[in-house]
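Example record

The entry below shows one chain as it appears in the dataset: sequence first, then structure tokens.
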Amino acid sequence: MKEFWKVLRRFVKPYTGYLYGSVFLNMFSAIFNIFSFSLIVPVLQILFKMDTSNYEMLAWNTEGMGFKELLINNFYAYCQQLIGKFGESNTLLIIGLFMIVMTLLKCSCYFGSSAIMIPLRTGVVRDLRTGVYNKLMGLPLGFFSDERKGDIVARMSGDVNEVEYSITSSLDMLIKNPILIAFYFATLIAISWKLTLFTIAVVPLMAWGMGALGRTLKKSSLKAQNRWSDTMSQLDETLGGLRIIKAFNAESKMKENFKGTCDDYRGISGRVATRQASAHPVSEFLGTIMIMIVLWFGGTLILSGSNIIDAPTFIFYMLILYSVLQPIKDLSRASYNIPKGLASMERIDKILLAENNIKDPENPVSIESLNDCIEFKDVCFSYNDEREVLTDINIKVQKGKTIAIVGQSGSGKSTLVDLIPRYYDVKSGSITIDGTDIRQFRTKDLRNLIGNVNQEAILFNDTIFNNIAFGVEGATMEQVIAAAKVANAHDFIMEKEEGYMTNIGDRGGKLSGGQRQRISIARAILANPEILILDEATSALDTESERLVQEALDRLTTSRTTIAIAHRLSTIKNADEILVMNEGRIVERGRHEELLAIGGYYKKLNDMQAL
């Protein structure tokens, strides 16, 4: 329960007003319930003529009598006055109507106490889901290289829903039931403290029996949620790789793998559900044992002529005692549900509490433009402190110049350019802009200077207009059209039935590769960055698409500081400097003609492409 209260302190604070309202309504619900049951005693007394005493109304400050005795005396006196005035049958009817009113008030308070918790439940879940999303937006790319996308989706959906069902719904029980139990036991003590003392001695047995079942639930629930993540991850991989699966006739294999994952999830979740299903029958059985023990003990006292309690009062006592059972059962159900929610919260916290090592400085240096150069000084980098991916990188990129980076796959080209916008931070050395380490700038200000065009055009399931205007506040249609014209995209856009309002589907699936790339170039043009990073922007295109995209890139790179990664050497012949990388090091550098004259690694690459 300690973990449970920690979770509540983190997320329930903005909704404390609803908690107070729930406490208030639950208190009145308990009071009205007790009063409605208390009318049973005089009804029985009247019905069976068990009490033939004459009662008189006494002043509330009568000496020698306690409040309880005065209350009982005056209530009985009032009932006798009603009998004298309306008769026994009509008096029973009046008391019955009064019980109906009390029950109506009790049910209204009961409903209100549950309804007032709904904004809290939905609010906490909303805050939790947006908190996870906002955290994901702030985490560095390195976090996602260690996580599966399907697992993250499972935490955002299944785990958050489990927290709502298991924790926030249990919160209502944890507020309501202790209040009901406290009021009911106070009433039991007021009726007969001796009989209640015997009852309390039996309760721990019931609590121990119910608690024993829930101790292993959290561990099993954690396994079940992990299996659910495996299911979501496999589904995500299947949807992303359908073309390859069908190309290699691997449908049967994927079906078998998915069935195995689902079978594992079914087995574990089945065991968890079995333990949960046992909560009600076990608590019902143990409650019946407690009721029968108390019934035997109290009945023995009455049959032996003891003056501890009379028969009608004992019936009232048993009604209240039976009313205690339901809150105790609800608490036991909460004790089963909460471990499942805590297991899900543990998985969500792997995101919420993940460390973000890309942090803004406390006193950031202002940057609005590139005035001189970008410089890499003795930069080394490795992922997770493993083998170095980059070693002793020294580069100086003057403003307005174009630097091209070539080399075999895995030589560190993309990693190098990812360091400039601080998707990762260097392990040693530094990267400076105009002589200031980029770690001294606010990340947002730094990335405002940089535009990206990647090998795979990353587009969103939205209109062409919104994809081009992405990240540019208040962009007008005229500005978007101008950017599209520079990117050689306007003509094919206007061929679409809805023009710029055409939805391009998931990841731009309704467009060709060249069209997607030109849309991404138009997006970069509209953003008008001072620093442009091109990561193999034309390598996946056919000749005609490459020509159109290259024309757009040539317009885009004019008067901008450009760092271009390229496999096709023909696209970077005119670069101001070409860097040749191999195994994380710069092995050659110079202009195209100079590198060919050296006759080294670059010439080998050039000859292979010419061949």
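Notes for this example: The chain has two domains: 2-221+263-352, 373-610. The beta strands are 373-382, 388-398, 402-407, 428-433, 436-437, 450-454, 531-535, 561-565, 577-582, 585-590.
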